[in-house]
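Need residues for this backbone.
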């Protein structure tokens, strides 16, 4: 038996990278998983991987920055499976401009809508059912960019990822006494598709030093599978080998 048999999870950004790996990891533990993301064909591929291994997956194509669409997908998940126990806020991404000198306010606000506001909206939508049952786990993928702010990740991304971490601390402080637990993961460099958006796209040698999505997914699995008496509040995880990123930073600051 899986440790999450009978449980239901919703994972955002489930078509690629950490989201895909996390959805598969939770399904391996027995959870039925709702897969949320903008690109339905990628969600379908994740669903096939889960179903092919005997798991249960629901494809829920939606843009999480659309608050109404996010609420609708939470409601759809609860209607389909009867409950929602685990929310994984993974969808995120940086701005086009990353320098504090040049970023436009619209870009700054858009990054916050995706990385901070959207997780809040999804969490708010999931909370009534979780509170009614007296149990629920919200796992949010932040970033080490919230801790060490560099032009490589961008001023907006670092600020937004710090903001969502604060939201999750507030959730714990307000509702942990009612069975709700918020787990925030702060990964350093991982070899995911978001690397393609950087000014200097890492080459194979650089990627070889990075963590893999499955490494972060194993932490998601741990947070979700801990007994209800135990809360993993925050996890900071980085590659063992820290590479020289001076050229990556220069690609932003010299532009």
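Answer:
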């Amino acid at each position: 038996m899986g440790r999450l048999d009978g449980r239901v999870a919703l994972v955002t950004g489930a078509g690629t990278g950490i989201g895909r790996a996390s959805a598969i990891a939770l399904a391996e533990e027995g959870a039925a998983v709702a897969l949320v993301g903008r690109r339905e064909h990628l969600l379908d591929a994740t669903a096939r991987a889960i179903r092919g291994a005997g798991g249960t997956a629901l494809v829920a194509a939606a843009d999480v920055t659309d608050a109404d669409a996010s609420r609708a997908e939470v409601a759809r998940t609860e209607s389909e499976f009867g409950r929602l126990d685990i929310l994984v806020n993974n969808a995120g991404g940086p701005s086009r401009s990353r320098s504090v000198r040049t970023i436009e306010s619209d870009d700054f606000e858009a990054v916050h809508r995706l990385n901070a506001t959207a997780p809040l909206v999804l969490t708010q939508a999931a909370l009534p059912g979780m509170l009614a049952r007296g149990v629920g786990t919200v796992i949010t993928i932040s970033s080490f960019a919230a801790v060490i702010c560099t032009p490589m990740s961008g001023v907006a991304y670092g600020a937004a990822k710090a903001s969502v971490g604060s939201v999750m601390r507030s959730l714990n402080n307000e509702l942990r006494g009612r069975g709700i637990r918020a787990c925030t993961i702060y990964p350093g460099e991982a070899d995911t598709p978001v690397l393609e958006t950087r000014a200097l796209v890492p080459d194979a040698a650089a990627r070889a030093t990075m963590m893999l999505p499955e490494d972060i997914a194993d932490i998601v699995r741990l947070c979700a599978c801990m007994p209800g008496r135990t809360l993993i509040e925050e996890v900071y995880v980085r590659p063992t080998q820290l590479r020289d990123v001076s050229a990556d930073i220069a690609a932003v600051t010299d532009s």
